[in-house]
Design brief:
With 477 residues, the chain is of the alpha+beta class. The protein folds into 3 domains: 13-272, BirA Bifunctional Protein, domain 2 (2-Layer Sandwich); 289-401, Rossmann fold (3-Layer(aba) Sandwich), CATH 3.40.50.800; 406-474, Translation Initiation Factor IF3 (2-Layer Sandwich). The protein contains 15 helices and 25 strands. It has helices spanning 13-23, 40-59, 73-78, 80-86, 112-122, 167-187, 234-239, 263-272, 298-305, 308-314, 330-339, 350-355, 379-404, 412-421, 432-442, and strands at 27-29, 36-38, 63-65, 70-72, 91-96, 99-107, 131-140, 154-164, 194-197, 209-216, 222-232, 242-244, 250-252, 254-261, 289-293, 320-322, 344-348, 357-362, 371-375, 406-407, 423-428, 445-450, 458-459, 466-467, 469-474.
Length: 477
Amino acid sequence: MAEERLPSRSEDFSEWYNQLVLRAQLADYAPVRGCMVVRPYGWALWEAIQQGLDRRFRATGHQNAAFPMFIPKSFLEREKEHVEGFSPELAVVTIGGGEELEEPLVVRPTSETLIGHMYAKWIKSYRDLPVLINLWNSAVRWEKRTRLFLRTTEFYWQEGHTAHATAEEAEAEARRMLDVYADFAINDAAVPVIQGLKTESEKFAGALRSYSLEAIMGDGKALQSATSHNLGENFARAFGMQYLDEKNVQHFCWTTSWGLSTRFVGAIIMVHGDDQGLILPPKLAPYQLVVVPIFHDEQERSLVLGQIDSLRAELGEYRLTVDLREGITPGYKFNDWEMRGVPLRVEVGPRDVDQRTVMLARRDQPGRAGKFSAPRDGLALRVGETLADIQASLYDRALQFRKAHTFDPQDFEEFAQAVEVGFAFSWWCGRAQCEAEIKEKTKATARCIPLDQPAGAGRCICCGESAEKKAIFARAY
């Protein structure tokens, strides 16, 4: 039952990714072009992401709600910049129930306009503010080039939408949620991220300011992992979202929106995976442990399987599965679970039963380097310590990779070389002309202007003029 090995990441990163998503049973292609079916293992990973985020959202006072997926087309046209930004990606319904609709309906690309309409109905007084709502739903954007999880016509995400009394409150909210995303990415997903401000050309359509998390993938390209937008008064003015203050004076609300989607599954795959398959961070892995019984005859089978229930009880605090498939060798099972990225494998054979031990194998250290024997006494504690160490080591390894692939080029030739393999952290004058020229010549975009900036000033990497900020430039997904 030997299965063909994955393509090497170094030889063909794109094909490695595509095959891994399919063979690890995360997702498959749907019959509609650009859409995907998320399989149970992939959905379990997305559910773990949801839980990690939802816990943080609730702790910051946000509530979940549900809004419809259909939006009157006229809603989008009220906010001119917004509709211009999304027009090429819209899916529009013109027929319903066999009859042509009086007004076309847009299948939700994002919900700011629908939110604006509803919030305008609900908000009348300063006492109604702030409104802090989050949605878990799917969205549709008609993409030309698609790839499972990274860019699909329909995708799953959360989108937060808040309304505030002042500009200061809205800005604080946008920044707070960026911090929430960073905390999740670093501490749950073990993905190091850079928090930054989007340039004017890269910001969300209709936003006053857009912030993002940028992460480097295993091939040196960037992935925008989450965004948080200060929408100013733009949508409030378009939809009449106003409130009366304590002095009975009417004001427009200040709003934000923020989101993280299933493309973050792609980030986890590309940041941590290796030539054997997935490597999942223990805090998010659908299974933190897989128990593989090893036996060669019926007597050994009876002896080993007799220990399974007690092992389940000992390790009950962890997400665990036992591989009891018959007619498959232990070696095949090892490779299969390595492909699926389970952080820790627990092997139990007759000798282990006799000696009251198990063999543990770390997914982040393939081969003999990651295997060691552990006594049954105190096993739960040892497993917990090992999982914590795997979580930390994955983050440290990813951070070291980013550092090794982040460059400070001294001229444009060095800059062009840098963005072929990683990030260029370069002085930029802030002019759109230079940003466009960089993109045309190198295919790299300004991913963000990091919030953490060095002291002093420099010279723009493109035009040589004075520059006060450094930006991250990279080729991106």
